[in-house]
Amino acid sequence: MFYLSLIEHTLRLPPHILHLPVDEAIKSELETLFLDKVIAKLGLCISVYDIRSIKGGFIFPGDGASTYTVEFRLIVFRPFIGEIIVAKLKESDASGLRLSLGFFDDIYIPVHLLPTPSRFEAIPNTRNQGRWIWDFGDAEEAQSEEPRFVIDGSDPVCLVILLQKFP
After folding, report:
1. What is the pLDDT of residue 140?
2. Is the distance from CB of 87 to CB of 76 less than 8 angstroms?
3. Are the beta carbons of 6 and 51 closer than 8 angstroms?
4. Which residues lie across from 109 on neighbouring strands?
């Protein structure tokens, strides 16, 4: 789920942050550039873990900024296919569920991927809001109350990663 990735990047430090110590200024600029961004074939960048090396400090003609080559490690989120993740319900409507991991709120489960048989119950006086109910009981059972699970945000939701949608 979480990986430590080693990256080398040529970084331009703008003049207005050169009053800070070099390592603090570089970490601040790296966080601005990378955090909450998805890097192709790597994942969602969560945090700058550490800075391994800083080389350079060149100022090119006509530019007031210094340029460094920085080697650093990032903590990235990239779940593997088949992984089970526990999330919280953020939003529920007739088209599906939107879930949150706390640091990542863009997990969407469309209707066709919800367990069957499931049904949507709209909440009166709300626009397209409601709750999903998963009826998982056996239809042949002669019980008056079928076993069911209400997805309303009171319990965590477990989901299985079926595909990765990182570019």
Report:
1. 52
2. no
3. no
4. 97
